[in-house]
């Protein structure tokens, strides 16, 4: 079983959606986790966006990166936005990737405008994970 850790700052949106997608798409072959440098809570809009595509992340928790520091992973993926954030560094892995996604929690506007941003990042995340699983782009 391949152990995968998704990292970002708050562990509230992007890494949570990535964890949910890999569990959903990757199936039994993956043991998937997510964490952040400054964990908060799972964003209700991330839960809602994922539920719209029948992926339930409501039971996932927002964890700090430190609980995983002593563990080894086959793959660690940081999902922070390069331009706006300092992504966490994690070296105890066979493969380390960076997939920069905008933070949908930063979206402003009406509820529907904010949800549009969550859906966009949700869909980009699915595409990136699907591509990776099919041997495509990193």
Task: Please give a structural write-up.
With 138 residues, this protein is an alpha/beta fold. The protein is globular and about 40 Å long. The protein contains three helices and four strands; from the N terminus they run βαβαββα. It has a four-stranded parallel β-sheet, covered by helices on one side. The protein has a single domain (2-133), classed as Response regulator (Rossmann fold), CATH 3.40.50.2300. The chain has helices at residues 14-26, 44-51, 111-133; strands spanning 2-8, 30-36, 73-78, 93-98. Helix content is 32%, strand content 19%.
CATH class reads: Alpha Beta
Helix and strand element order:
EHEHEEH
Residue windows where pLDDT falls under 50 for at least 5 positions: none
Question: How much of the polypeptide forms β-strand, as a percent range?
Answer: 15-25%
Total number of distinct structural domains: 1
Contiguous helical run count: 3
What is the number of beta strands?
4
Q: Identify the CATH homologous superfamily.
A: Response regulator
Indicate the CATH topology: Rossmann fold
The dominant shape is globular
